[in-house]
Amino acid sequence: MPPTLLVIGEVADGHLTKLSAEIATLAAGLAGSSGGTALGLIVDAAPDGAAAELAAYLPRVVSVASAAAADEVWAPHAAAEARRLLDEGVTHVLAGVTNDGRDVAGLLCGALGWGVLANAAGATWEGERLVVEAVVLAGKAITRSTVDAPSAIVTVTPGAADAVGSGAPGRVESREPAGSPVVPAARVLERVAEAGAEASLEEANVVVVGGRGVGGPEGFELVDELAGLLGGVTGASRAAVDAGWIPYARQIGQTGKVVRPALYLSLGVSGAMQHRAGMQGSQNVIAINRDPDAPVAEIADLFVVGDLFAVGPALSAEIRARRGG
Q: The whole model's pTM is what?
């Protein structure tokens, strides 16, 4: 029986996230190569915009206007809508490697008894079996896991596919909410925007990152300056976050955000395995560190050995000069 792949779309500021678009492209490719089908799901208080955007990648999108999603934790409601679609033949569920995506995957795993393959960096078919690739050990190895069961849940990392539209918009099907969530959904009493959270690391094409080597909160002034000059977003290593120099919303790594920018510029970041797990998919990596043996040198396309407080300002000055001040 040909597979039916369901993409759990996520919404940010009324729009489909970049990661969801990438997952939709991956799902469409998997459906095409197997003779199966792919569809998307948007669950939001105001889903229309994101649903239309997801339909640019998939032939069919189910859009659920859930008022409860505005006042309660989102994942239980999204999982309930996904479970309802199983009756329509869904065999595989794809979600993003985000806090919400992981929550949905866990809830569906518990509710359905399906297995979960986490952190997929790619997927193909071998006959009727889905094979998922994941990058592990900070890029030192790639695992290939085969799904022998007829159904599975897969969480997908940024960069698993380039977001490419189908060329013809798909059909958006609006539905009323299913009713009860998969598990009781906690009510959201207050939303607090963490400082720095307004700029999305996952969506950025340029990320400038500060580590322990910046020395303190004032060191991030240089990081912010370079990010601004390059039209990018500021990130940080766990060491800088744990020191209280910058909010957790900026953390990149195994316990933070996963990014895949066109340019990743790090200042004073050693590049430990846990950090590299969150940025190893970056297209171009430039690192500045005074330690010539820093682990980040192993993956950097350009490694500058020097004091970041000498190299960084010089880089800023050169960028300004080339832009005419």
A: 0.79
